[in-house]
Amino acid sequence: MLQIAGPSTQKVLGVLAAPDGLPAAVEALNLQQGMKLPSITPQQIIAQNVTPDLSEQSSANNYPLVYVYCNKVVNLLREKFRAFSGETQMVVEARVSQDRLDQLETNLQAYVDAVTQVLDNSRGDWGDGVFFDGGYEVAFGGVKHGGRNFLQIAKVSFVLEISAD
Question: Phi/psi at 11 (nearest 5 deg)?
């Protein structure tokens, strides 16, 4: 079987961590809307599917964090003579944590806006047979105990079309 999930995750990671990616989008939000969001560095964008409690036990987290992972791979065999022609379901998970509830949800929504802005600007051919049509879905989770005291997570899910030999 072809390696599909790992390279798809790396493609998304590359788009988000690029110079005009998520760090730039967060800075633009700060400038345009007068917000005071903590900046995101490429080191805070991680290719891993790990629960918050496990990630806190295994490393020192510097919030906000963005996790990127492949949730599902489907070979639809759309192209007859390709080894893989289908979809990968990708997830970009934004995690915000702070010691007070004030502005927690507002900050998370702003980070999600930055993620979706990067995706909106990245529609089309990502190279190597990877295509993004621009559609996505956002799911906001409730506030939980964790991180610096309170933790909230949002998941941006989208599909990449893959065509590989």
Answer: -60, -45
